[in-house]
# Entry
Amino acid sequence: MIILAIAGAQFRAKINTDPGEDIAKDGCRSFVQNLSSIFRNKDQMHVKRINYRSSAPVVACIFHRPTVVCVMLTRKANTYRLYPTPEQAQQMAQIAGSCRYVFNLALEQRRDWWKPGRKFSFASQCREVTMLRAEVDWLKAAPVHTLQQALKDLDRAYQNWWAGRAEAPTPRKKGLSDSFRFPDPVSIEVERTGKSSGRIKLPKLGWVRLRGWYAIPGEICNATVSRRAGQWHVSVQWQRETAEPLPSILPAAGDCRAATVHPASSGHRPWYCGVRRTQRRHQHCAG
# Structure
């Protein structure tokens, strides 16, 4: 809403805006009624209406309809190949093994130890992992966020199974499911160091060299480290707001047979009819 202080004579000007229909009608009607009650009483004015200048300003309220721009959130990922040091590679293998152990242990708990009245959820298993890390040293060496993300993957797998979108979750195997995810974007940094090289900073791993650089055009969401065929890779997910695409002006895809001109309906015989007839004659003579 826009509030303007204007003199009484300025009501003769026309204000072009885009108000709502009901609000504009009510506002203009009230302005006209106030002017008629003031300017028609000659005892109060003693001057002509056109030369009147009010000492006290009149407050005019103009309701403006804002312009709404529709945007959508686009999420993509950039994948780079990592070149860790031997110490970093050993540490990443230990973190992947810890996440695989927690996933399989939570799966066994849900599958074998379930009974009526005893339920397991993502929150309850996260509390048990916290207590387990206090007792096991090699689990304490792994970041707690990566272990919680393994439990989150298991919970999502059960939700998909119950909804009929996927099969029942199965245990992870070494060499096939060596991956872990860092969900905190604050602790992730990506820098370019050369034409096609760079480095990424990960919790408890520090800076790790990478190859295949291309820029990240949005805000970082998370980073997933995985091992495939003995090579380590990192997938950095990012997001950004983009304008919603306008509807296409092209016609919808449909039956285009009506617009196709068939050779038989055009009145002319196609050129390949004579070639086919000649081929049939040669085959008949050869037979």
User: Anything to note?
Assistant: The mean pLDDT is 76.
